[in-house]
UniProtKB/TrEMBL annotation:
Domain of life per record: Eukaryota
BP GO annotations: positive regulation of metabolic process
InterPro entries in the cross-refs: Fun_TF, Transcr_Regulatory_Proteins, Zn2-C6_fun-type_DNA-bd_sf, Zn2Cys6_DnaBD
CDD domains: GAL4
PANTHER family xref list: ASPERCRYPTIN BIOSYNTHESIS CLUSTER-SPECIFIC TRANSCRIPTION REGULATOR ATNN-RELATED
Annotated source species: Aspergillus aculeatus (strain ATCC 16872 / CBS 172.66 / WB 5094)
Keyword Cell membrane: no
Protein name: Zn(2)-C6 fungal-type domain-containing protein
């Protein structure tokens, strides 16, 4: 510290001359002395105690000014300064992330991808595009908007963001080597693209993005198996879950599609089907992989198709063993959880997916149309669980006015299966009511189209079957089967895309097949 002169007094103004170099001696201060108070300055910092002890402010030193703290600029600033982009990213963060995963998100959507978006423009622009489309989707009243007539007000902004995302994704994929984070971003962006297409009723384009994602996972399958031991296991599992579910949803459209030969001909990462899980999230990933394996067997079996062939017993047994092992492991996991977790909606969803996989296995892989009657109680239990997930109180007049969108929660498929396969009137009509009352889009599954398909199928069966009408004396005598006889049951409902926004459904009963009749064909529009 520069010494004050021996006559230095408090209440003085000081100008300090700093040395030019470390070796330079200090020059004395020039002092302006307050001659009123002749008290020697004790030179204590930040204030002379002889001053402050008397209640005065020490002017012996210049006040120490703390420089303003300059924080590191947010990565957000590096991504965008566009207010519309920021607004939609905020919507994605606060609304879309919670609806994409709902019950099972170990931080993938709600944390990890949000952080990645600040470093990957492809992800950022994809999220903002999906957010604005999602906002449009949930903002319109399904009661007053006919299917195919929904206005997409933000289409132009979404297209602009989509093009930016595609450009950034191309630049990312041109790198010589992609790291684990790069690959996570590529696949997550691919899933976002498929969701964008779905919300614009662009089914063909959605299929393209899903197929691309499945191919990428197949190419990286060895790496994803290694990730189960080290690296980002949660992200890898979530991406496998997303694309496995999307694959399972597309398969029913392949039964009568010309695109069937171009679809992925093998299950993606079957390793996940093995029951080695220790958490409910991992149990969900596992049951979706098992369900996908069963769906692929049903596709191969195609019991009413021209390419029908029996399934080897070894393949059937392998799927049954996976289901049984899953049941045993889930029981072990549930024992470790508190009672409130064992009775949660997450467990209900797990059991809905498990029941659906079992119903497909026991009914859709069995010749004939009567096997569903043997599993009536499973169908009723499945609908009960879905009602709990939806929070349904049994009032059919309280229709939800806004459609929901989710990527990973699957309840449209099980409700649809029960409504078309279970012929017990009360159970199937309750499933239909839930489809109508809670309109939702899950991946590529449109609950509104599903409800329309079910409604027509029930009409065909109940008007065509004297037993269902309670009028056995009419034409076309009935044969075996509860509630609806076998020959009047609708055996197939083939979906064929007619355009980006329309799908044709062809219904054929067992009798139609026997008499080589074309069946009934109707056209539906996506909502």
């Amino acid at each position: 510290m520069v010494s004050a002169s021996e006559n230095g007094l408090c209440n003085l103004q000081v100008r300090i001359t700093e040395p030019d170099s470390p070796g330079q001696s200090h020059m004395p201060r020039r002092l302006t002395v307050d001659r009123i108070r002749r008290i020697k300055c004790d030179e204590a910092k930040p204030s002379c105690q002889k001053c402050v002890s008397t209640g005065r402010r020490c002017d012996g030193y210049e006040s120490i000014r703390t420089p303003p703290v300059m924080g590191m600029p947010s990565a957000w600033d590096f991504i965008s300064d566009d207010s519309t982009e920021l607004d939609n990213f905020s919507f994605f963060q606060s609304v879309t992330t919670s609806t994409l995963a709902e019950f099972f998100d170990p931080g993938f959507w709600s944390d990890q991808l949000l952080r990645f978006a600040h470093h990957y423009p492809a992800l950022w622009h994809g999220m903002t595009a999906l957010a604005c489309l999602h906002r449009d989707y949930v903002g319109q009243d399904v009661r007053f908007t006919a299917p195919g007539a929904r206005e997409i007000r933000s289409r132009r902004f979404a297209l602009k963001q989509y093009n930016k995302s595609i450009q950034a994704l191309s630049e990312l994929c041109s790198k010589p080597v992609l790291g684990l984070e790069d690959r996570i971003v590529v696949l997550a962006t691919c899933a976002i693209f498929s969701s964008m297409c779905v919300l614009q009723s662009q089914q063909h384009q959605a299929y393209m993005h899903i197929r691309n994602g499945l191919k990428i996972i197949s190419e990286w399958e060895i790496d994803y198996q290694e990730v189960t031991v080290c690296g980002d296991y949660v992200a890898a599992s979530m991406l496998v879950l997303i694309f496995t579910r999307l694959d399972s949803q597309v398969i029913p459209y392949m039964f009568a599609s010309d695109d069937a030969t171009t679809w992925i001909d093998r299950q993606v990462v079957p390793l996940y089907a093995h029951a080695t899980f220790l958490t409910l999230f991992d149990a969900y990933v596992s049951i979706e992989a098992i369900y996908n394996g069963v769906m692929r067997l049903v596709w191969k079996f195609n019991k009413r198709g021209a390419s029908y062939r029996p399934i080897p017993l070894t393949e059937r047994e392998a799927q049954l063993q996976l289901l049984q092992a899953w049941d045993q492991q889930l029981a072990i996991v549930l024992e470790t959880l508190p009672a409130e977790s064992r009775n949660s909606k997450a467990v209900d969803l797990l059991m809905v997916r498990r029941t659906l996989a079992g119903l497909f296995y026991h009914v859709d892989l069995t010749p004939g149309e009567l096997a569903a009657d043997l599993h009536f109680t499973d169908s009723a239990e499945l609908v009960d669980r879905v009602a709990r997930i939806l929070g349904d109180v049994g009032n059919g007049h309280l229709q939800r006015t806004k459609a929901a969108y989710t990527l990973e929660t699957g309840i449209v498929e099980p409700l649809f299966w029960v409504a078309v396969r279970c012929r017990e009137p009360q159970v199937r009509r309750r499933a239909l009511r839930l489809l109508r009352q809670y309109p939702r889009r899950e991946g590529i599954c449109d609950g509104i189209v599903a409800a329309g398909t079910v409604n027509k199928l029930i009409e065909i069966e109940e008007t065509g079957c004297p037993r269902a009408r309670g009028d056995p004396e009419k034409a076309s005598p009935c044969n075996d089967g509860q509630w609806v006889c076998e020959k009047h049951r609708v055996s197939t409902w083939d979906f064929v895309l007619q355009s980006e926004s329309e799908v044709a459904v062809t219904y054929r009963t067992v009798e139609d097949f026997a008499l080589d009749r074309p069946g009934t064909k109707l056209l539906y529009s996506w909502w």
